[in-house]
UniProtKB/TrEMBL annotation:
Belongs to the TRAFAC class TrmE-Era-EngA-EngB-Septin-like GTPase superfamily. AIG1/Toc34/Toc159-like paraseptin GTPase family. IAN subfamily. Keywords: Nucleotide-binding. Residues 567-578 have a biased composition (Polar residues). This is AIG1-type G domain-containing protein. InterPro entries: G_AIG1, P-loop_NTPase. GO terms for molecular function: GTP binding. The keyword Nucleotide-binding applies. Residues 814-1017 form the AIG1-type G domain. PANTHER family: SI:CH211-245H14.1-RELATED. PROSITE patterns: G_AIG1 (PS51720).
Length: 1150
């Protein structure tokens, strides 16, 4: 081994240190003796005519310079610029110089081309913003001048200054290097000393290590001997371990085998137990079926016995006849008895034949019932057609009645104002930022005789400006209240100002929240900087106001109307009824009936504007003879409207024919967040036979879902292109999904962007968390789709039998008052029930309240000569109530209160003291929401709150509660009643309660019914019996009702008509005829309303029936399929069990 390595290293390090010291000294001496040359890089901008060379040569005489050819090597940049215009050329040169290097120092020589040595040039240094840069000026061509010498001096001084600074920096660096070198020398001397000491130590260690090496060689020899012995022992250990591993594996395999067998046995035992249980259940079912079969067999045996008895009787009679014949041969006296016996035999034969005929008759009756069902459906279809025709007539009648009422109002308005000028008073209800003046100026330009006054008494109408600050509804209500308080019943124009910068903003129609008859309402958009926005909405509003105030437009108004027609052509269908003023006045014919104007029922149904000009309202009153002077052109629009209505009916029939099938292909053009699945589910509930297919060729029509991601127009166009590529010209329903969380969000009508012929377009609102929103827009769209896709058979089946149900309901309504008592367990429901019925069961009531009745209870009684049924329900409003129990409790309550309760009594106990923290307002909100979820949205119209108290002092404190908690009571129409539970003997509180209930029932006109009631009654209440019993009645109840209603209405109106004719003999003919026509139209209207009610009830009733029948058939099929599958599984399990039980002998031995 070599132990001299460290000593060699120390020697080499000392030599290197000495060499470094020598090099440092040499560099210091060279740096002191050396003179620095300044390196520069030449930069030229323009043709200098080699004058820069002369400048560089003169500069080298003063300063030692060295030219380099790269920017990185130079110490500074020397630039020469030929100037034509000082500013621009210097800027261009500076940009080039900056692109070359922005950090290096630079000297910029600006060369001015001139021959005048005394030419005064501008100082170019002012145009230079760079810090480390010097700019000097020289005259090109005149080298010997003061300017040239000054620039040379400046540059030489600048460079010398730079050189001095660089020398100073180099001296500083040299001093630092000297100090660092001295420190390094000191460190090296210390290192040399340490190395010498380490040398001595290493020599001593070398001797020690040599002795240790000798000992190590001896130890290695002994270790080798021991390793050999260990290797022999390891081989033996490996052999023994291999034998142990083999034995352990054999043991583990045997254990696994045993565990598998145990698990198999356990599984077999479980299967056996399960099979035994299933077998027991099946045995029980088989026993029940066997019992049923035995019962049927017994009945068959009985019938066989009766037949055998009849046969034996026949044989006996035959034997008797034989004996009688024999006796006849013996004696003639028995002839009379034989005649009687023959008659008896004939009667017995007749009875047997009658039994056979009865069976045949029953079969015929069943066939006749089936035939009657078909006839009944055909009759209902005919009835639907007549109803639809009558509905059209009703709409026209309502239209005429409204027009007649408007004419009356117009006569009042005409008397209010006569004069050459239109005077108005301005009323501002908020901060308009002075933009209402702009609207006034525009109106004054269009209407020349419009004049503003400062007194309300002088005005003809009032111009109201209402800026929307908080909510449109509340601000408009406040403005209308202010108008009524200040102006009373004067005509008004309400301009609702919406603050926005978007000229295409869609705002809700404000005329819907205004119910003042002599008032017009418009919406305008404005901004504080732009004023009134230039948009179609504002043009439309101004044109409508001017048309209402002054229909005869001057030339300047024609321009505005032209702009409005262009701007509002796309938005006419969107805004509903923008005016709340009168309807256009129509001329009256000689027979008293008003002729149809150009804007008829189609405009009202489409939601278009229908206003009357202001000057027509305030025109002079027309004489009674003037209607005869109406031109023939006024009669033509009626025919056009009738023909257009017929065309609409034809188009509706064509649409239903297009969507008559039940197979639909679903096309989704974007991310709907599974909202389209909810739409399909709703449509399948409305149309159970609706099938979703996966191929376009198999479908009857296509359901397209188009979520709006970017813009409505582009997304709808993309969806239509995709539909055209996939389906061609197949019928399609396009559902445009708008993403929002606001239920009252106003969206543009997507139907405008669709020009496809055989397609229907609807809009829906959805959200990623809420799914399809519960809003009028979605219900309207879904109803429209269901009306289109439902076949007429379903409609006829729906409309089959509401007359039957209504007859029974009206009979029960007249006889029994049904009350459903709701509330929590501790509210005192049973005590309230007993007080109403009049039973003294205080102890039982208290015990029942403590144990909380778990089922609905039905109690009947008679109160004040009226039959009353009170149904007490369990607690339906607790938070931890399971859904299955809630469903059963609701079904039980509905069964007991069928066909529907007249009143819901919600029992709420009032707190006795302030220590009990019961928030009655919060309780009312929670219970109302749960009631609407359970019983339907309209249940609160039939609801009354019963505040159960035990102390009269609580009633006095209710005044404060009513002031602070009005909102919750308004939902149920502020109907409430106090009931003292302790004073059950006081009959006055019960009589007051029944009076309030009777008032509520009279206001609602019928008992409560909803989809929940119809579904449960259809599944529980014996539907087949009702249908069969009603079909046996030959005379239809609907026709009887129609006759009865016609008779009653005639009887009611005949004396009134006679009295009016007697009282008004001087009345003009046309007014009498108008009145008679109006009365006849009102009669028809009432009849049609009754028919509509009956038809709607029939639809709901039959829809529930058919759904339940289909569900029951589906359930029966599913149960049969489940039983078949279970039998197959059982057979497989038994086969496996037998195979497993038949073990061979070898397996048993193991």
């Amino acid at each position: 081994m070599d132990y001299t390595v460290e000593s060699d290293i120390t020697v080499t390090t000392t030599h290197s240190v000495v060499k470094r010291q020598m090099v440092l000294k040499a560099t210091e001496s060279e740096s002191t003796q050396q003179v620095i040359d300044i390196k520069f890089w030449l930069f030229l901008s323009g043709n200098t005519l080699n004058s820069h060379k002369h400048f560089v040569a003169r500069l080298k005489q003063q300063v030692r310079l060295q030219e380099v050819f790269t920017v990185d090597e130079c110490d500074f940049i020397l630039g020469f610029i030929l100037v034509s215009r000082a500013g621009t050329d210097i800027e261009v040169a500076m940009k080039k110089l900056h692109s070359v290097s922005d950090t290096k120092p630079a000297v910029l020589v600006v060369l001015h081309h001139t021959l005048d040595p005394e030419y005064v040039v501008p100082d170019s240094s002012k145009a230079v913003n760079r810090e480390n840069m010097l700019a000097v000026d020289c005259l090109l061509g005149i080298l010997q001048c003061l300017k040239y010498n000054e620039s040379l001096a400046k540059t030489s001084q600048y460079l010398l200054r730079e050189v001095k600074e660089e020398l100073r920096k180099t001296n500083m660096t040299l001093e630092k290097n000297q100090t660092q070198s001295k420190d390094k020398e000191r460190r090296l001397e210390s290192v040399v000393k340490e190395l010498e000491t380490s040398k001595n130590k290493l020599t001593e260690r070398d001797g020690q290590l040599q002795e240790k090496d000798r000992l190590l060689t001896e130890n290695t020899q002994t270790l080798q001997m021991k390793d050999e012995t260990l290797e022999e022992k390891e081989t033996l250990l490996k052999q023994t371990r291999a034998e142990l591993d083999t034995t352990m594996k054999e043991l583990e395999d045997s254990q696994r085998h045993m565990e598998e067998k145990n698990t198999q046995l356990e599984n077999l035992n479980k299967m056996l137990t399960e099979n035994t249980e299933t077998l027991k259940k099946k045995d029980n079912k088989l026993e029940e079926k066997e019992k049923q079969i035995k019962e049927i067999e017994e009945e068959l045996r009985k019938t066989n016995r009766t037949l055998k008895k009849n046969q034996t009787q026949m044989k006996d009679t035959e034997r008797q006849l034989e004996s009688v014949v024999k006796e006849l041969e013996t004696s003639t006296n028995i002839l009379e008895t034989l005649g009687q016996k023959q008659r008896q035999l004939q009667e017995m034969m007749i009875i047997v034949e009658q039994q056979k005929t009865e069976l045949a008759e029953k079969n015929k009756e069943l066939e006749e019932k089936h035939f009657l069902l078909k006839e009944y459906s055909q009759i209902l279809q005919m009835k639907d057609k007549t109803l639809e025709e009558k509905e059209k007539q009703l709409k026209k009648v309502k239209k005429r009645i409204e027009k007649n009422e408007d004419i009356r109002n117009d006569t009042l308005l005409r008397e209010m104002m006569k004069g050459p000028h239109l005077k108005y008073f301005t009323l501002v209800t908020g901060k308009t930022l002075g933009h209402h003046v702009e609207i006034e100026m525009k109106l004054q330009k269009v209407i020349p005789h419009l004049q503003k006054v400062m007194n309300l008494e002088e005005t003809d109408f009032i111009l109201v400006f209402c800026p929307v600050v908080s909510k449109a509804g509340t601000d408009i209500e406040a403005a209308v209240k202010m108008l009524i308080t200040q102006a009373g019943n004067k005509p008004a124009v309400l301009v609702v100002l919406h603050h926005t910068f978007n000229p295409e903003l869609i705002v809700p129609d404000s005329s819907r929240s205004v119910k003042r008859w002599n008032m017009i309402t418009v919406d305008c958009l404005f901004h504080e900087d732009q004023g009134l926005l230039t948009c179609s909405k504002n043009h439309e509003a101004l044109s409508k106001v001017t048309n209402w105030l002054h229909p005869e437009q001057p030339d300047n108004m024609k321009l505005i109307s032209g702009e409005v027609n262009q701007a509002t052509s796309a938005s006419d269908n969107q805004n509903d009824m923008n005016w709340s003023g009168g309807v256009q006045e129509e001329p009256i014919t000689s027979d008293g009936t008003s002729t149809a104007s150009t804007v008829d029922m189609e405009d009202v149904e489409a939601g278009g504007p229908h206003t009357e000009p202001f000057e027509m309202i305030y025109a002079d009153e027309v004489d009674s003879s003037t209607p005869s002077t109406s031109t023939p052109s006024t009669s033509t629009p009626s025919t056009s409207t009738d023909s257009s209505a017929e065309m609409k009916d034809v188009e509706a029939e064509k649409i239903t024919d297009m969507f008559s099938g039940n197979k639909v292909f679903v096309l989704v053009t974007g991310n709907t967040l599974k909202a389209h699945e909810k739409v399909i589910e709703i449509l399948q509930t409305q149309k159970p036979d609706l099938q979703v297919v996966e191929k376009v060729n198999e479908s009857d029509y296509i359901l397209v879902f188009c979520p709006i991601a970017s813009r409505a127009g582009t997304d709808v166009e993309a969806a239509l292109k995709k539909l055209q590529d996939i389906a061609g010209t197949k019928p399609a329903v396009l559902v445009v999904l708008h993403h929002t969380f606001q239920t009252d969000w106003v969206v543009p009508d997507s139907n405008r962007a669709v020009k496809r012929k055989n397609s229907v377009t609807v809009d829906c609102l959805f959200h990623e968390d809420l799914g399809l929103l519960h809003c009028p827009k979605n219900t309207e769209s879904l109803e429209r789709i269901t009306r289109i896709i439902k076949p007429p058979e379903d409609q006829s089946q729906r409309e089959k039998g509401p007359e039957k149900e209504q007859e029974t309901e009206t009979k029960e309504k007249d006889s029994v008052l049904r009350i459903l008592v709701l509330g929590r367990n501790d509210s005192g429901k049973s005590s309230v029930k007993n007080i109403i019925i009049g039973k003294e069961e205080k102890a039982a009531a208290s015990s029942a309240e403590s144990t909380a009745s778990k089922e609905s209870k039905n109690t009947e009684g008679e109160v004040a000569g009226r039959k009353v049924t009170v149904v007490e329900t369990p607690d339906l409003f607790s938070a931890g109530l399971p859904l299955e129990k809630l469903r059963k409790d609701v079904e039980e309550a509905i069964k007991l209160s069928k066909p529907g309760p007249h009143a819901f009594l919600l029992i709420i106990p009032l707190p006795l003291s302030e220590d009990i923290k019961v928030n009655t307002e919060e309780e009312l909100k929670v219970t109302f929401t749960k009631m609407e979820e359970i019983f339907g949205d309209r249940c609160l119209k039939h609801t009354m709150i019963i505040f159960s108290v035990t102390n009269e002092s609580v009633k006095n404190t209710f005044n404060q509660f009513e002031k602070n908690k009005v909102q919750s009571l308004e939902k149920c129409g502020n109907r409430y009643h106090f009931l003292n539970i302790e004073q059950s003997e006081d009959g006055s509180q019960v009589s007051e309660l029944l009076e309030k209930i009777e008032k509520m029932v009279g206001g609602n006109r019928e008992n409560y019914s909803s989809e929940v009631y119809l579904k449960t009654l259809a599944s529980v209440g014996g539907i087949e019996k009702k249908i069969s019993s009603e079909l046996e009645k030959q005379d239809h109840p609907a026709t009887e009702k129609m006759r009865n209603t016609e008779k009653t209405t005639k009887r009611k109106h005949e004396p009134e008509q006679e009295e009016e004719m007697e009282q008004s003999p001087k009345m003009p003919k046309f007014e009498k005829e108008n009145r008679e026509n109006r009365e006849m139209e009102i009669q028809k209207m009432h009849e049609e309303e009754n028919m509509e009610k009956e038809r709607n009830e029939m639809k709901t009733f039959l829809s529930g029936i058919w759904r339940d029948i289909l569900n029951s058939n589906m359930k029966m099929q599913e149960e049969i399929e489940k039983k078949d599958r279970q039998m197959e599984k059982d057979n497989k399990i038994y086969a496996e069990l037998f195979n497993m039980l038949n073990f061979p002998k070898d397996q048993h031995d193991t």
